[in-house]
Amino acid sequence: MGARRKARELALQMLFQYDMAGNEPDMIIETFEDLQKSKPNTREFAVKIFRGTVDHLADIDEKIQAQAENWRLSRMAVVDRNIIRMSIYEFLHESDTPKLVIIDEAIEIAKKFGTIKSSQFINGILDGILKRYNLAP
Question: Please, what are the domains in the chain?
Answer without folding.
Answer: 3-132 (1.10.940.10)
